[in-house]
Amino acid sequence: MTARLDALMPEQDHLGRFLATYQRTTLAVGSALADGLFEDPSWVARWDVAFAEIYLEALDAYLSGGSPPRPWRLAFDAPRNLPPLGHVLLGVNAHVNYDLPHALLAVLSDADFADAALMASRRRDHERIDSVLAGRVAAEDDELGPHGRSRTDRLLQPVHRLSAKRFLREARTKVWHNTVELQAARRAGPAAYAARLSELEVLSAARVADVLAPGQVLLKLAVAGFGVTLPPL
To answer: What's the 3-state SS for 161-182?
Structure first.
């Protein structure tokens, strides 16, 4: 991540908004691993690497002229002059709503899903990440700096921070549901899995409009929700 940040050209600085945020969040997860927060730290570490690789592959594809998944393409193609918070939220949408279920499946086998006790432990570790993210909200808000927020935003800063914690937790709860849905499709075969993943891509891409809508976006997302939900088959 550091190498990619250092390699960005001045006209690509908007791509660094989410990348820098994600780098700091990854370091926070590493600290939580070292502090013994998780029931199965080795599994969480493997999951964290798989999760990061999906984003980095999308970024590398975009920088090399390729075509990453639509949620990432929309995030990367967003106007450079979009406020920093907007770029971060677009990255969170693509990485949590779209990438995260896929990353979980990379480290959860079909046999794992058949083990209720193991899956309960995996879900608890998934939920423990929420506390890491909540612990980063204030620091990341400060990283945006006063130039990343309007006067109204600064006045509403405490409410915004509570809103961010709320919608992150809500989105990650829906991620677990979507992971279960994708696993069922995976068992049905590659075609079924590809179709469900395509559905998730469309749902995640549609969330971009909510992020780019005018007004107090954090408050709106806290009320209306930020996550997406795959409908049952």
So the answer is: HHHHHHHHHHHHHHHHHHHHHH
Tokens of 76: 């990367």
One-letter amino acid of 231: P
pTM for the whole structure = 0.86
Q: For residue 204, give the nearest of 54, 80, 100, 48 by alpha carbon.
A: 100
Instruction: Give the tens place of pLDDT for each residue, 37-63.
Output: 999 999 999 999 999 999 999 999 999
Q: How far apart are CA 23 and CA 1, in angstroms?
A: 6
Are the C-beta atoms of residues 186 and 200 closer than 8 Å to each other? no
Residues 6+ apart with CB under 8 A from 106: 47, 50
Q: How many structural domains compose the chain?
A: 1
Range of the domain at 49: 2-224
Average pLDDT, the chain: 86
